[in-house]
């Protein structure tokens, strides 16, 4: 498996996690599901990292599936905050689209 692809999805996930942490920490109005959203965003990164540390037969596919599920959960928490008007449209769509891209990257890695 190409290490550049590993690095690209890991860096993308780290960037989204950093942005979500910044979003949570900088909000004058408390967001919904803060601890779950922070945990899910971190779980995307840690699951990708764990998957890359395993061999192809050592649970890599399962770790990448977990990362995908955590990315979907993070989108759900962002969606709830957007619906409650606690985050603006631009922020929601930017983070959602980045998470969708990460999900697609994980899907592609899972097919290798």
Report on the structure:
With 112 residues, this protein is an all-alpha fold. It has a single domain (3-111), classed as 23S rRNA-intervening sequence (de novo design (two linked rop proteins), Up-down Bundle). Helices cover 80% and strands 0% of the residues. It contains four helices and no strands. It starts with a helix and ends with a helix. The mean pLDDT is 92.
Total DSSP E strands: 0
Mind telling me the CATH superfamily name?
23S rRNA-intervening sequence
Tally of separate helices: 4
CATH class reads Mainly Alpha
Radius of gyration: 14 Å
- Unreliable spans: none
- In the CATH hierarchy, the architecture is Up-down Bundle
Assess the beta-strand content as a share of residues. Answer: under 5%
Q: Major beta sheet, specifics? A: none
Total domain count: 1
H/E element order: HHHH
Q: So what's the overall shape?
A: elongated
Q: Structural class of the helix and strand makeup?
A: mainly alpha
Stated plainly, the CATH topology is called: de novo design (two linked rop proteins)
Percent helix among the residues?
A: over 70%
C-alpha end-to-end distance: 7 Å
